[in-house]
Amino acid sequence: MSRLIILDGGMGRELKRMGAPFSQPLWSAQGFIDAGAEIITVNSYACVPFHLGETLYQAKGAALAEQAAVIAKKVTQNAKQTVLVAVSLPPAFGSYRADFFQSDRAFTILDTLYKAQDEYVDIWIGETISNIEEARVMASVLKNSNKPCYYAFTLSDEVSEQATLRSGELVSDAILALLEYKIAGIFFNCSIPEVIEQALRDTNRVLKQQNKHVDLGAFANGFTPIASDYKANEGSQGYRDLSPAEYVAFAKQWHSLGATIIGGCCGIGPEFIAALVKWKSDIKAI
After folding, report:
1. 3-state secondary structure of 107
2. From the CA atom positions of the chain, what is the Rg in Å?
3. Residues β-bridged to residue 41
4. How confident is the model at residue 23 (pLDDT cuts 50, 70, 90)?
5. How far apart are CA 80 and CA 188, in angstroms?
6. Is 169 helix (H, G, I), strand (E, B) or coil?
7. Using the 8-state DSSP alphabet, how is residue 266 labeled?
8. Residues forming a β-bridge with 150
């Protein structure tokens, strides 16, 4: 059985459950350290003009991103376990919408986030990537970092014989494109759990063909399937009835296919992470 590292889960919904002030499009941060997470993600996902608005982004975008990274770093200092701080490079023009992507503008926005946070973090995650060009831009932004850099693709929420990105591009083609860069690993995130198995299978096939090895990971969401014309900030996506036990069953499947970094995305709260941690401890006890 290969090693296993537990990532944190979704932040916004958990803070809303706790009664924190919450409204779209602004989000807040909450580490999942008490549940046993070994990697927490800086909550700077919304520090882009799409969410903040152009005026607030220009005035405070970089400062808010830096502050989020500093807070995350401080939180880890009191943790019982060793906890790494990850920063995500988010979609610059809203989640899931490959058709909104603009390469030049995205590079400028993401490079600002990179420069504001790199000194405070342990690893980078290019997150919720919906098309191949977006992955290339993120890799270009991160090329000068000396931190491990991971890339997380969001998948079409339709089970098929070949996994596809939200753009309709094949996962296998996306992996080939990323292998041109220096990468630490490939993840799949913010997709329904059912589609991640095929994505991992397709990734393993490409890695074997190319004689490459990188870390694999997965952090699915608790959403109902997301429509292709999804409009961020115009309401909340519906959640499904998914239990921690059911999520762990998916995680076991991903782990058997080589995923060594597993956590949760939107709607996957601390109780899910605690269940993953218990599963990990059960593995170690065998």
Report:
1. helix
2. 17
3. 86
4. very low
5. 28
6. coil
7. T
8. 125, 185
Quote the pLDDT of residue 26.
34
Tokens at 223, concatenated: 């959403």
Whether the CB-CB separation of 117 and 65 falls below 8 Å is answered with yes
Tokens 């807040």 appear where? 28
Q: How far apart are CA 205 and CA 50, in angstroms?
A: 36
In Å, how far are 106, 169, 178, 216 from 183, measured between CA atoms?
20, 20, 8, 11
The percentage of residues in the chain with a pLDDT greater than 90, rounded to a whole number, is 73
Angle at alpha carbon of residue 93, lines to 263 and 86, rounded to 5°: 30
Q: Which residue carries 């059960």 as its tokens?
A: 282
107 CB burial (10 A radius; 0-12, 13-18, 19+):
middle
Region of 19 (left: φ > 0; alpha: ψ -120 to 50; beta: rest) is: left
Q: Is 216 helix (H, G, I), strand (E, B) or coil?
A: strand
Distance CA(156)–CA(164), nearest Å, equals 6
In angstroms, the CA 222 to CA 191 distance is: 8
pLDDT tens for residues 192-204? 999 999 999 999 9
Contact 152, 188 (CB under 8 A): yes
Q: In terms of DSSP bridges, do strands 215-220 and 149-153 run parallel, antiparallel, or are they unpaired?
A: unpaired
Q: How far apart are CA 67 and CA 70, in angstroms?
A: 5
Asked whether 149 and 126 are in contact (CB, 8 A), the reply is yes
Is residue 8 classed as helix, strand or coil in its secondary structure?
A: coil
- Name the maximum alpha-carbon separation found in the chain: 55
- Both tokens of 27, joined, read 């989000």
47 close to 65: Cβ distance less than 8 angstroms = yes
Cα 35 to Cα 30, 32, 81, 263, distances in angstroms: 11, 5, 11, 11
Token representation of residue 196: 């991640």
Question: Which residues on adjacent β-strands are paired with residue 6?
Answer: 262
